[in-house]
Structure formats: structure tokens, C-alpha cells
Amino acid sequence: MSEAGEEKGQGDAHVKYMKESSSKDEDEGSKQSKQATEDEGKLGGPRFSPPLYRQRYMFCADILEKHGIKSVVDFGCAECQIMMYLRQVACLERIGLVDRDVVTLELSKHKIQPLITDHLDPRDNPLTVEMYLGSVTDYDPRVAQCDAVTMIELIEHLTEPELKSFPDAIFGRICPRLILITTPNADFNQLFPDLTGFRHWDHKFEWTTEEFQNWCRAQADKYEYDVEFSGVGMGPPGSEPLGYCSQAAIFVSKSPTSSSPLLPSLSSSPPCDGDFKYTLISSAVHPHKTEKFTLEEKMLLEVNYCLNHLSKDPLYSESWENAVLPIGNLHKYVKLKELFKTEEDLRFFLADRGYPLTPDSTSVIFRIEEEGEEEEEEGEGVEWGYQPMEPPNNDGQFSDAEEDLLPWNPPESEECWPEIV
Ligand code: SAM
């Protein structure tokens, strides 16, 4: 079981209070988590194990599972760290991730792709993941039919006008069956001796338990939801009256529609292009046991599988980070030959779908996840998806890559998994 799975198995009882200590030896978490993810471990107060940001994801995944949620949209997804927990929620069939920070999304989009383990042990249910650039204050019909919306440590980043307007987009127009909101509990801040001001430089406010609960009850009344309060991260013995470090509200609609099937497919025609407020950054189709893929999905899965397979050959490693994979050799995979009649067809598909090619278009530049990078650290294993990178400058550095190659032996057809019917 992955680390995430083990943690999850511990249920709510996992929340351990640890002795106060300086933030220097704080669990590093991921490198990116230092940038946007709320990390209370840096505040010099109570320490939590697992770190609180992970406990929030686990809490969220537990709730989605408990409510049998099939489709969820996570607003303010930042580096998409929640993906490692959401991908383990068996009932989920569709995940939408929305953030307004395009740089963070671009840097994190590989995280929505299936992992090796997802291919080796496919899910029972299909799973599609879509990542959008957009704001929680805007309504976009592509995420309109979701069962649940989550906002993990997001609302405190909203300006006053945004805080006023977003409930109309979420509660009023999407009207999901379930809404989960977490936010820092200002009452708890007195346990952080190093804290001056708010917990994060970008926070516009931090609410006490009373302020948060009053706001939530007002939304629940206005939009006809029931609301329950909970949270993650209890302080040391004696601090119970302060409540949780991160407070949470779980809204359940009083008039739930039946659990939605999949959201309208991305490829289905939009109601009206002009209605689209978000920009699609990336999407991924995860393998599952009863695969009935569209041709496009089959092609993407096979291409990603074969790119990963080929990139394991040290012959093609440009560096520890990149592999330069000749399209001619890629096309020797039996499954790719079946799907793409000619090497030229494959090249066109790769270019059209945004795979970075060498300047002479003979090879794909493929990013290899480094050992010790975040996914490894989180116990997830190696990423199995398309891991794009910036195309190189046209300085010819890759132009003769093919000439350096040793003769190529095409793999046996059995190697080219998954079998697609
Ligand atoms: N939910 C993530 C987590 O728990 O790890 C990260 C939360 S991070 C502290 C807040 C994120 O909200 C940032 O990535 C920021 O770009 C995003 N954000 C701020 N305002 C937003 C808005 N109006 N719509 C969507 N995302 C927004």
C-alpha cells in the first residue's frame, strides 16, 4: 500500500500532537508545498503528523468516499497535491481541478496523469481528470454537473468582493450535493508563538470559529443546505476550547439531485463557446478494468505507455531529467503501429497534442521524473504519464540524437500493455 493509503487507513485517529519545536526540522513535505500549500509546520507551534496539509487532503477524501461522490471539483487546487489522495477514492469518476495561477498549474499538470501503479492495478471505475485555469467566482458549464465542490484553504485568499460573489457561482449555480470548505481557525493562532499577522502572506483574513460558522450558516440558509462543522489538527491537551487548527464546514444540499453521471465530455459540443470562463490546461484518462475507451483515449494511453517504456532505456537519456525518444522507434511498438498507420501519422498526433518535439521533429523530448522528486517522497512511485517540458531552443542540441542510437529491437507485442479492445 502506498504511504497515502496507509495514512488514510488510520482514519481520523491519525492526528497526533507532537512536542513543540522549531520550524527548521519540520517535515519538508514537497518542495512545491512550501510555495502555496498552507504549511502550519513553519509557524513554530504544535506540530502534526502527518503534516496538516496532508491531513486536510485525507479528511477531504474520506468525506467524498463517505458520500459516494462521483464527480468533484476542487477550487484553489494549487500544486494539485490533493490528487494523490483523490486518485484513491474508488467512487470518483471525474475530478476537476481549478486554480487561477497559471504558472503553478503548468508546473503541476503532470500530477494528474496515471501512475505506473494505476496501470498495473487499474481502478474498477473510469476516472477522468481535468485541470482548468479559472476563478471560483466564475461559473463554467463544464464543471456544472458535479456532485461535490471542495475548497481547501482557499476562501481566506479571496478579496472581499470575491468572497461576496463566489457563493453565487458555487452554491447558487453549480448547486452540488456536497460542498466542503476548510480555512484556518484564528482562535488557534495563539498556539503559534512565531506567528505575526496571518499564517500565510496571501491571506486576506482569518476567521475565528464563530465568524466562520456564522458565515457558513448564512450561506446554508440562503442556498438551502444543511451544514456541519469539523476540522483537522487538535492542539495540545488543554487547548481543546480553541478548536481545530483548520476548521471545516461540510454543506449537504437539502434538495439533492441524484448522483450525477459523468460530466459532459470535453469533446461534446459546448452549449455555447462564449459560456466558457475557464481555460483547459490539461486532462487525463486513467485506466480502469472495464475499459471502453474512445479512439482518442486509446491513442493517448498507448502513446504515454510506450513513451514511458522507451524512456527507461538508458540509450535515450539526454540527462537524468530528459529522454530524447525517436519517433521512428516509438512507431515500432506493435500497438502504436496498429493505431498509427505511418510514422508520419504518429508524428502529427504527437505534435498536435502538444508533446514537445526536437527542432527537426524526429524525436519526442520526454521528462523523466527524478528519484527523490515529490511523488517519490510522497510514496507514490514514479509518474507514468506524459510529462511535458519546455521545448529546447532551436540550437541543434537534439538534432543528431537519432544518429547516436544503437540498432533498435522492437518490443514483443505482450510488452505493449494495456491491452485495449
Ligand atoms: N488547496 C490547496 C491545498 O490545500 O494544498 C492550495 C491552497 S493555496 C493556499 C490557495 C490557492 O488558491 C492558490 O493556488 C491560489 O492561486 C488559489 N486561488 C486564489 N484565489 C482564487 C480564485 N479566485 N479562484 C481559484 N483559485 C484561487
What does this 3D model show about the protein?
The protein has 421 residues and is α/β, with parallel strands linked by helices. The chain folds into two domains: 3-283, Rossmann fold; 292-415. The chain has helices at 3-9, 52-66, 83-86, 102-108, 116-120, 160-174, 209-223, 295-311, 327-330, 334-339, 343-352, 374-377; strands at residues 16-18, 47-49, 71-75, 94-99, 127-133, 148-152, 178-184, 225-232, 246-253, 279-286, 322-326, 363-367. The longest helix has 17 residues, at 295-311. The radius of gyration is 23 Å and the shape is elongated. Bound molecules: S-adenosylmethionine (SAM). S-adenosylmethionine binds at residues 36-38, 53, 56, 75-78, 81, 98-101, 104, 135-137, 152-154, 157-158, 162.
Spell out the key features of this protein.
alpha/beta, binds S-adenosylmethionine, about 425 residues, elongated, Rossmann fold
Q: What oligomeric state is this?
A: single chain
- Level-2 CATH architecture of the largest domain: 3-Layer(aba) Sandwich
Number of strands: 12
**Class of the largest domain, according to the CATH hierarchy?**
Alpha Beta
**Number of H- or I-type helical stretches:** 12
> And the CATH topology of the largest domain?
Rossmann fold
End-to-end gap = 29 Å
- How many structural domains? 2
Strand order of the largest sheet: 8-9-7-6-3-4-5-10
- Unreliable stretches (pLDDT < 50, length at least 5) are 1-34, 258-270, 370-421
Mean pLDDT: 78
Task: Tell me the overall shape.
Answer: elongated
User: Rg from C-alpha positions?
Assistant: 23 Å
Instruction: Specify the CATH homologous superfamily of the largest domain.
Output: Vaccinia Virus protein VP39
Order of helices and strands: HEEHEHEHHEEHEHEEEHEHHHEH
Classify the helix fraction into a percent range: 25-40%
Strand content: 15-25%
